[in-house]
Amino acid sequence: LKYGDEPYTQQYGGCGEKGQYIHFTPNFILNSSLTQIYGPKDKVFLHEWAHLQWGVFDENNDKVPYYLSNGKYEATRCSKEIIGRNADCTDGDCKSCEIDPTSGLPKGNCQFYPDRKQTSTSSIMYIQGLSQVTEFCDKNTHNPDAPTMQNKMCNYRSTWEVIRES
Predict the structure, then answer these.
(1) Closest CA to 136 of 146, 127, 147
(2) Residue 48 known to be catalytic
């Protein structure tokens, strides 16, 4: 269950199955300062509408923020074309991530911080707050290796493929 002003869509079904409702608080609708946290309202609405109308899922994973791909770690995201840096910024001072020698993955509080300027335009279901991001991942930009809910629930199909088939 989610609380506060964070927008979300209640979604119990499988891939391609419509959600139940979208939750927007009055504070989210009326308070423009929340766009700093959640992104522009039009893109947030589109992200949530995609959950509701087309039964697609998020293309990130807070529980599995990194995975191994071809022997190196990658941040869980769609698309891999979103560039940024990995850092541990817990003490207010960002430092390089420590790598677990057993798993080869970053440990601790390491996070992926996307660059503000991107050349990639996807994906709305990953990060709608970047100004260049205006599209859903399609079969050309989709990252089927990432441990995302979209991959898990939709048999590794891109968001756009699911939308087109609905």
Answers:
(1) 127
(2) yes
